[in-house]
Amino acid sequence: MSRKSYSIAVVGAGAVGLSAALAFARDGFETVLIGRLDTRRDGRTVALLNGSIRFLEALGVWPSLIPEAAPLQTMRIVDDTGSLFRPPPVSFSAREIDLDAFGWNIENATLVEELAESARAYENLTILTEQATDFRAEADRAVIVLADGSEVEVNLVVAADGRNSRLRQIAGIETQTWSYPQTALAVLLAHDREHRETSTEFHTRNGPFTLVPLPGKRSSLVWVTSQKRAEQLSKLDDQALALAVERQAQSHLGAMRVDGPRGLVPMSGLSVNRYGAPRLALVGEAAHVFPPIGAQGLNLGFRDVASLRDAVVDALDNGREPGSSETLRQYQLSRDLDVRLRTAAIDGLNRTLLTGLLPADLARGAGLLALSRIGFLRRAVMREGVLPHMGAPRLMQDASA
Predict the structure, then answer these.
(1) DSSP per residue over 276-329, as a string?
(2) What is the CATH number of domain 182-267?
(3) Is the dihedral of CA 371, 373, 374, 378 positive or negative?
(4) 271 in Cβ contact with 176 (< 8 Å)
(5) Which CATH architecture best describes the domain 3-177+269-396?
(6) Within a 10 A sphere around the Cβ of 336, how many other Cβ atoms?
(7) pLDDT for 344-394, tens place per residue?
(8) What is the residue extent of each domain of the chain?
(9) Are 349 and 363 in contact (CB under 8 A)?
Protein backbone atom coordinates (compact mmCIF):
# COMPACT_ATOMS: atom_id res chain seq x y z
CA MET A 1 0.00 0.00 0.00
CA SER A 2 1.47 3.35 -1.06
CA ARG A 3 1.54 6.29 1.33
CA LYS A 4 2.54 9.87 0.53
CA SER A 5 3.26 12.60 3.08
CA TYR A 6 2.24 16.26 3.03
CA SER A 7 1.80 18.97 5.62
CA ILE A 8 -1.91 19.73 5.03
CA ALA A 9 -4.67 17.88 3.17
CA VAL A 10 -7.87 19.54 1.97
CA VAL A 11 -10.70 17.11 1.20
CA GLY A 12 -13.34 18.54 -1.13
CA ALA A 13 -12.81 20.44 -4.39
CA GLY A 14 -15.63 22.96 -4.30
CA ALA A 15 -15.02 26.70 -3.99
CA VAL A 16 -14.22 26.50 -0.26
CA GLY A 17 -11.91 23.50 -0.59
CA LEU A 18 -10.06 25.00 -3.56
CA SER A 19 -9.58 28.30 -1.72
CA ALA A 20 -8.25 26.46 1.35
CA ALA A 21 -5.72 24.56 -0.74
CA LEU A 22 -4.59 27.79 -2.41
CA ALA A 23 -4.34 29.63 0.92
CA PHE A 24 -2.10 27.03 2.53
CA ALA A 25 0.03 26.47 -0.59
CA ARG A 26 0.46 30.26 -0.83
CA ASP A 27 2.03 30.22 2.64
CA GLY A 28 4.50 27.49 1.67
CA PHE A 29 2.79 24.46 3.22
CA GLU A 30 3.09 21.24 1.22
CA THR A 31 -0.59 20.82 0.47
CA VAL A 32 -2.68 18.12 -1.20
CA LEU A 33 -6.21 18.71 -2.52
CA ILE A 34 -8.35 15.56 -2.62
CA GLY A 35 -11.61 15.38 -4.58
CA ARG A 36 -13.30 15.77 -7.95
CA LEU A 37 -14.37 19.08 -9.45
CA ASP A 38 -18.06 19.74 -10.03
CA THR A 39 -18.61 22.60 -12.47
CA ARG A 40 -22.16 21.82 -13.54
CA ARG A 41 -24.16 24.97 -14.20
CA ASP A 42 -27.45 25.03 -12.33
CA GLY A 43 -28.47 28.69 -12.33
CA ARG A 44 -26.79 29.47 -9.00
CA THR A 45 -24.58 32.47 -8.43
CA VAL A 46 -22.78 33.80 -5.36
CA ALA A 47 -22.56 37.38 -4.15
CA LEU A 48 -18.97 37.67 -2.99
CA LEU A 49 -18.88 40.34 -0.29
CA ASN A 50 -15.99 42.77 0.19
CA GLY A 51 -14.10 40.55 2.64
CA SER A 52 -14.24 37.63 0.23
CA ILE A 53 -12.96 39.84 -2.59
CA ARG A 54 -9.93 40.78 -0.46
CA PHE A 55 -9.39 37.09 0.26
CA LEU A 56 -9.47 36.18 -3.43
CA GLU A 57 -7.12 39.08 -4.18
CA ALA A 58 -4.66 37.64 -1.65
CA LEU A 59 -4.87 34.26 -3.41
CA GLY A 60 -4.14 35.94 -6.77
CA VAL A 61 -7.46 34.77 -8.27
CA TRP A 62 -9.58 37.90 -8.33
CA PRO A 63 -8.21 39.58 -11.52
CA SER A 64 -9.34 36.61 -13.65
CA LEU A 65 -12.84 36.75 -12.12
CA ILE A 66 -13.58 40.46 -12.66
CA PRO A 67 -14.77 40.15 -16.32
CA GLU A 68 -17.31 37.50 -15.27
CA ALA A 69 -18.71 39.35 -12.24
CA ALA A 70 -20.96 42.36 -11.65
CA PRO A 71 -20.55 44.85 -8.79
CA LEU A 72 -23.25 45.23 -6.14
CA GLN A 73 -23.30 48.96 -5.48
CA THR A 74 -26.80 49.24 -4.06
CA MET A 75 -29.02 46.83 -2.16
CA ARG A 76 -32.76 47.51 -2.21
CA ILE A 77 -35.39 45.80 -0.03
CA VAL A 78 -39.09 45.94 -0.94
CA ASP A 79 -41.80 44.66 1.43
CA ASP A 80 -44.23 42.70 -0.72
CA THR A 81 -45.84 40.67 2.06
CA GLY A 82 -49.20 42.42 2.00
CA SER A 83 -48.78 43.15 5.69
CA LEU A 84 -50.83 45.90 7.36
CA PHE A 85 -47.52 47.45 8.42
CA ARG A 86 -45.50 47.84 5.23
CA PRO A 87 -42.46 50.12 5.40
CA PRO A 88 -41.39 51.95 2.24
CA PRO A 89 -38.60 50.41 0.12
CA VAL A 90 -35.16 50.74 1.73
CA SER A 91 -31.93 51.21 -0.24
CA PHE A 92 -28.37 50.75 1.01
CA SER A 93 -25.47 52.29 -0.93
CA ALA A 94 -21.91 51.01 -0.66
CA ARG A 95 -20.67 54.59 -0.93
CA GLU A 96 -22.11 55.25 2.55
CA ILE A 97 -19.40 53.03 4.01
CA ASP A 98 -16.69 54.22 1.61
CA LEU A 99 -16.78 51.20 -0.69
CA ASP A 100 -17.22 51.11 -4.45
CA ALA A 101 -19.36 47.97 -4.04
CA PHE A 102 -20.60 45.69 -1.28
CA GLY A 103 -19.33 42.80 -3.36
CA TRP A 104 -19.59 41.18 -6.76
CA ASN A 105 -21.97 38.56 -8.15
CA ILE A 106 -20.66 35.64 -10.21
CA GLU A 107 -21.83 32.20 -11.32
CA ASN A 108 -20.80 29.43 -8.92
CA ALA A 109 -19.45 27.23 -11.69
CA THR A 110 -17.30 30.06 -13.09
CA LEU A 111 -15.81 30.72 -9.67
CA VAL A 112 -14.93 27.02 -9.20
CA GLU A 113 -13.40 26.82 -12.69
CA GLU A 114 -11.14 29.82 -12.07
CA LEU A 115 -10.08 28.60 -8.62
CA ALA A 116 -9.26 25.20 -10.12
CA GLU A 117 -7.22 26.81 -12.90
CA SER A 118 -5.17 28.69 -10.31
CA ALA A 119 -4.73 25.54 -8.24
CA ARG A 120 -3.20 23.68 -11.16
CA ALA A 121 -0.48 26.33 -11.46
CA TYR A 122 0.33 26.73 -7.75
CA GLU A 123 3.58 25.50 -6.28
CA ASN A 124 3.42 23.29 -3.17
CA LEU A 125 -0.02 22.03 -4.26
CA THR A 126 -0.77 18.48 -5.43
CA ILE A 127 -4.24 17.58 -6.75
CA LEU A 128 -5.61 14.05 -6.34
CA THR A 129 -8.99 13.27 -7.92
CA GLU A 130 -9.60 10.08 -5.93
CA GLN A 131 -12.30 10.24 -3.27
CA ALA A 132 -11.39 10.02 0.42
CA THR A 133 -13.05 6.94 1.97
CA ASP A 134 -11.61 6.91 5.49
CA PHE A 135 -9.74 9.04 8.00
CA ARG A 136 -7.95 8.34 11.26
CA ALA A 137 -5.98 10.52 13.64
CA GLU A 138 -2.74 9.16 15.04
CA ALA A 139 -0.43 10.58 17.71
CA ASP A 140 1.28 13.17 15.55
CA ARG A 141 -0.23 12.65 12.11
CA ALA A 142 -3.50 11.95 10.34
CA VAL A 143 -4.01 9.32 7.65
CA ILE A 144 -6.53 9.58 4.81
CA VAL A 145 -7.44 6.45 2.86
CA LEU A 146 -8.35 6.99 -0.81
CA ALA A 147 -10.73 5.00 -2.98
CA ASP A 148 -7.85 3.31 -4.81
CA GLY A 149 -6.44 1.99 -1.51
CA SER A 150 -3.53 4.43 -1.30
CA GLU A 151 -2.99 6.59 1.78
CA VAL A 152 -2.07 10.20 2.43
CA GLU A 153 -0.30 11.16 5.66
CA VAL A 154 -0.54 14.76 6.88
CA ASN A 155 -0.33 16.95 9.96
CA LEU A 156 -3.76 18.56 9.47
CA VAL A 157 -6.85 17.54 7.51
CA VAL A 158 -9.27 20.25 6.33
CA ALA A 159 -12.75 18.83 5.71
CA ALA A 160 -14.39 20.82 2.92
CA ASP A 161 -16.49 17.89 1.73
CA GLY A 162 -19.91 19.50 2.01
CA ARG A 163 -23.09 19.18 4.02
CA ASN A 164 -22.93 15.37 3.97
CA SER A 165 -19.27 15.40 5.03
CA ARG A 166 -17.92 11.86 5.38
CA LEU A 167 -14.94 13.07 7.41
CA ARG A 168 -17.26 14.83 9.87
CA GLN A 169 -19.23 11.62 10.30
CA ILE A 170 -16.11 9.50 10.81
CA ALA A 171 -14.85 11.97 13.43
CA GLY A 172 -18.15 11.69 15.32
CA ILE A 173 -18.92 15.42 15.24
CA GLU A 174 -22.59 15.94 16.02
CA THR A 175 -24.86 18.10 13.88
CA GLN A 176 -28.16 19.86 14.21
CA THR A 177 -30.25 20.03 11.04
CA TRP A 178 -33.52 21.74 10.20
CA SER A 179 -35.60 22.49 7.15
CA TYR A 180 -38.17 25.03 5.99
CA PRO A 181 -41.43 24.46 4.07
CA GLN A 182 -39.83 26.21 1.10
CA THR A 183 -37.65 25.59 -1.93
CA ALA A 184 -35.55 28.12 -3.84
CA LEU A 185 -35.67 28.35 -7.61
CA ALA A 186 -32.39 29.62 -9.07
CA VAL A 187 -32.26 30.85 -12.67
CA LEU A 188 -30.27 33.25 -14.87
CA LEU A 189 -32.19 35.98 -16.69
CA ALA A 190 -31.80 38.67 -19.33
CA HIS A 191 -34.00 41.78 -19.13
CA ASP A 192 -34.82 44.95 -21.04
CA ARG A 193 -33.85 47.51 -18.40
CA GLU A 194 -30.50 48.26 -16.77
CA HIS A 195 -30.13 46.91 -13.26
CA ARG A 196 -27.79 49.82 -12.39
CA GLU A 197 -25.66 47.50 -10.21
CA THR A 198 -28.59 47.23 -7.79
CA SER A 199 -29.64 44.02 -6.05
CA THR A 200 -33.38 44.05 -5.34
CA GLU A 201 -34.95 41.79 -2.73
CA PHE A 202 -38.73 41.52 -2.50
CA HIS A 203 -39.88 40.17 0.86
CA THR A 204 -42.92 38.02 0.10
CA ARG A 205 -45.06 35.92 2.42
CA ASN A 206 -43.43 32.76 1.04
CA GLY A 207 -39.85 34.04 1.33
CA PRO A 208 -37.44 36.43 -0.41
CA PHE A 209 -37.50 36.96 -4.18
CA THR A 210 -34.07 38.36 -5.02
CA LEU A 211 -32.65 39.70 -8.30
CA VAL A 212 -28.87 40.16 -8.27
CA PRO A 213 -26.87 41.86 -11.07
CA LEU A 214 -24.70 40.02 -13.56
CA PRO A 215 -22.65 41.66 -16.34
CA GLY A 216 -24.76 43.44 -18.96
CA LYS A 217 -28.54 43.44 -18.84
CA ARG A 218 -28.56 40.16 -16.96
CA SER A 219 -29.39 39.11 -13.41
CA SER A 220 -29.54 35.99 -11.32
CA LEU A 221 -32.73 35.15 -9.47
CA VAL A 222 -33.25 33.27 -6.22
CA TRP A 223 -37.00 32.83 -5.78
CA VAL A 224 -37.83 31.33 -2.39
CA THR A 225 -41.38 30.04 -2.32
CA SER A 226 -43.44 27.04 -1.25
CA GLN A 227 -42.18 23.63 -2.31
CA LYS A 228 -45.23 23.05 -4.50
CA ARG A 229 -44.96 26.44 -6.21
CA ALA A 230 -41.21 26.03 -6.82
CA GLU A 231 -41.75 22.66 -8.48
CA GLN A 232 -44.51 24.13 -10.64
CA LEU A 233 -42.28 27.03 -11.70
CA SER A 234 -39.36 24.72 -12.50
CA LYS A 235 -41.53 22.78 -14.96
CA LEU A 236 -42.64 25.85 -16.94
CA ASP A 237 -41.15 26.48 -20.37
CA ASP A 238 -38.75 29.41 -20.66
CA GLN A 239 -41.35 31.87 -21.94
CA ALA A 240 -43.89 31.09 -19.20
CA LEU A 241 -41.24 31.17 -16.47
CA ALA A 242 -39.91 34.53 -17.69
CA LEU A 243 -43.43 35.99 -17.59
CA ALA A 244 -44.01 34.67 -14.06
CA VAL A 245 -40.72 36.23 -12.93
CA GLU A 246 -41.56 39.57 -14.55
CA ARG A 247 -44.92 39.68 -12.79
CA GLN A 248 -43.44 38.79 -9.40
CA ALA A 249 -40.78 41.48 -9.92
CA GLN A 250 -43.50 44.05 -10.68
CA SER A 251 -41.81 44.63 -14.08
CA HIS A 252 -38.95 46.23 -12.16
CA LEU A 253 -36.46 45.30 -14.91
CA GLY A 254 -38.91 45.18 -17.81
CA ALA A 255 -39.51 42.12 -19.94
CA MET A 256 -37.57 39.01 -18.86
CA ARG A 257 -35.97 36.16 -20.79
CA VAL A 258 -34.51 32.97 -19.33
CA ASP A 259 -30.79 33.14 -20.15
CA GLY A 260 -29.27 30.02 -18.67
CA PRO A 261 -29.92 26.87 -16.68
CA ARG A 262 -32.25 26.67 -13.73
CA GLY A 263 -32.17 24.60 -10.54
CA LEU A 264 -33.99 23.95 -7.28
CA VAL A 265 -32.19 24.49 -3.98
CA PRO A 266 -33.48 22.93 -0.72
CA MET A 267 -34.20 25.37 2.10
CA SER A 268 -32.42 23.80 5.03
CA GLY A 269 -29.84 24.47 7.68
CA LEU A 270 -27.08 22.64 9.53
CA SER A 271 -24.81 23.49 12.43
CA VAL A 272 -22.15 21.55 14.35
CA ASN A 273 -21.36 21.33 18.03
CA ARG A 274 -17.64 21.77 17.33
CA TYR A 275 -15.52 22.77 14.34
CA GLY A 276 -12.85 20.14 14.68
CA ALA A 277 -11.58 16.87 16.07
CA PRO A 278 -8.00 15.63 16.58
CA ARG A 279 -6.06 16.59 13.41
CA LEU A 280 -9.28 17.67 11.65
CA ALA A 281 -10.91 21.08 10.97
CA LEU A 282 -14.30 21.60 9.33
CA VAL A 283 -14.86 24.45 6.85
CA GLY A 284 -17.73 25.56 4.63
CA GLU A 285 -20.83 23.40 4.44
CA ALA A 286 -19.13 20.64 6.41
CA ALA A 287 -19.50 23.07 9.35
CA HIS A 288 -22.63 25.07 8.55
CA VAL A 289 -25.38 25.15 5.95
CA PHE A 290 -27.55 28.19 5.24
CA PRO A 291 -30.60 28.63 3.04
CA PRO A 292 -29.79 30.84 0.01
CA ILE A 293 -30.71 34.08 1.80
CA GLY A 294 -28.51 37.05 2.64
CA ALA A 295 -25.38 35.95 0.74
CA GLN A 296 -23.91 34.33 3.84
CA GLY A 297 -23.11 30.70 2.91
CA LEU A 298 -19.99 30.84 0.74
CA ASN A 299 -18.79 34.09 2.30
CA LEU A 300 -18.79 32.38 5.70
CA GLY A 301 -16.99 29.42 4.15
CA PHE A 302 -14.22 31.70 2.88
CA ARG A 303 -14.08 33.28 6.34
CA ASP A 304 -13.64 29.79 7.83
CA VAL A 305 -10.67 29.19 5.54
CA ALA A 306 -9.05 32.55 6.24
CA SER A 307 -9.52 32.08 10.01
CA LEU A 308 -8.08 28.56 9.94
CA ARG A 309 -5.15 29.85 7.90
CA ASP A 310 -4.49 32.49 10.60
CA ALA A 311 -4.57 29.81 13.32
CA VAL A 312 -2.12 27.61 11.38
CA VAL A 313 0.28 30.48 10.67
CA ASP A 314 0.14 31.58 14.31
CA ALA A 315 0.88 28.01 15.39
CA LEU A 316 3.96 27.88 13.18
CA ASP A 317 5.17 31.24 14.52
CA ASN A 318 4.86 29.86 18.05
CA GLY A 319 6.60 26.58 17.38
CA ARG A 320 3.43 24.47 17.21
CA GLU A 321 2.22 22.07 14.56
CA PRO A 322 -0.55 23.04 12.11
CA GLY A 323 -2.74 20.24 13.44
CA SER A 324 -2.09 20.78 17.14
CA SER A 325 -4.93 20.98 19.64
CA GLU A 326 -4.06 24.65 20.32
CA THR A 327 -4.40 25.45 16.61
CA LEU A 328 -7.83 23.84 16.46
CA ARG A 329 -8.90 25.56 19.69
CA GLN A 330 -7.96 28.97 18.24
CA TYR A 331 -9.93 28.15 15.08
CA GLN A 332 -12.99 27.12 17.11
CA LEU A 333 -12.94 30.39 19.07
CA SER A 334 -12.62 32.44 15.89
CA ARG A 335 -15.67 30.91 14.20
CA ASP A 336 -18.21 29.98 16.84
CA LEU A 337 -19.83 33.35 17.58
CA ASP A 338 -19.68 34.65 14.00
CA VAL A 339 -21.49 31.61 12.60
CA ARG A 340 -24.04 31.45 15.43
CA LEU A 341 -25.04 35.11 15.03
CA ARG A 342 -25.49 34.84 11.28
CA THR A 343 -27.38 31.57 11.57
CA ALA A 344 -29.81 33.21 14.00
CA ALA A 345 -30.20 36.32 11.79
CA ILE A 346 -30.98 34.40 8.59
CA ASP A 347 -33.26 31.95 10.37
CA GLY A 348 -35.10 34.77 12.14
CA LEU A 349 -35.66 36.79 8.97
CA ASN A 350 -37.02 33.82 7.06
CA ARG A 351 -39.35 32.74 9.85
CA THR A 352 -40.80 36.23 10.33
CA LEU A 353 -41.76 36.24 6.65
CA LEU A 354 -43.50 32.89 7.02
CA THR A 355 -45.43 33.53 10.21
CA GLY A 356 -47.90 36.15 8.99
CA LEU A 357 -48.33 37.28 12.60
CA LEU A 358 -48.80 41.00 13.12
CA PRO A 359 -46.16 41.30 15.92
CA ALA A 360 -43.54 39.72 13.65
CA ASP A 361 -44.54 42.00 10.78
CA LEU A 362 -44.35 45.01 13.06
CA ALA A 363 -40.90 44.05 14.31
CA ARG A 364 -39.54 43.44 10.81
CA GLY A 365 -41.14 46.62 9.44
CA ALA A 366 -39.92 48.72 12.35
CA GLY A 367 -36.42 47.40 11.84
CA LEU A 368 -36.41 48.33 8.15
CA LEU A 369 -37.86 51.74 8.95
CA ALA A 370 -35.15 52.36 11.55
CA LEU A 371 -32.45 51.38 9.06
CA SER A 372 -33.86 53.77 6.48
CA ARG A 373 -34.04 56.72 8.91
CA ILE A 374 -31.06 56.29 11.28
CA GLY A 375 -27.83 56.83 9.37
CA PHE A 376 -25.27 55.56 11.88
CA LEU A 377 -27.34 52.40 12.50
CA ARG A 378 -27.68 51.73 8.78
CA ARG A 379 -23.93 52.16 8.24
CA ALA A 380 -23.08 49.89 11.18
CA VAL A 381 -25.34 47.15 9.83
CA MET A 382 -23.87 47.48 6.33
CA ARG A 383 -20.29 47.23 7.61
CA GLU A 384 -21.12 44.18 9.72
CA GLY A 385 -22.83 42.53 6.78
CA VAL A 386 -19.87 43.04 4.46
CA LEU A 387 -17.19 42.02 6.96
CA PRO A 388 -17.29 41.74 10.75
CA HIS A 389 -15.48 44.60 12.45
CA MET A 390 -14.09 42.42 15.23
CA GLY A 391 -11.92 39.41 14.51
CA ALA A 392 -11.77 39.66 10.71
CA PRO A 393 -9.16 37.21 9.34
CA ARG A 394 -5.94 38.88 8.22
CA LEU A 395 -6.29 37.92 4.54
CA MET A 396 -9.64 39.71 4.52
CA GLN A 397 -8.03 42.87 5.81
CA ASP A 398 -4.73 42.99 3.94
CA ALA A 399 -3.73 40.84 0.97
CA SER A 400 -0.08 40.88 2.08
CA ALA A 401 -0.80 39.50 5.59
Answers:
(1) EETTEEE-GGGTEE--SSTT-HHHHHHHHHHHHHHHHHHHHHTT--TTSHHHHH
(2) 3.30.9.10
(3) positive
(4) yes
(5) 3-Layer(bba) Sandwich (3.50)
(6) 13
(7) 877 776 666 666 555 555 555 556 655 566 655 556 666 666 666 566 899
(8) 3-177+269-396, 182-267
(9) no
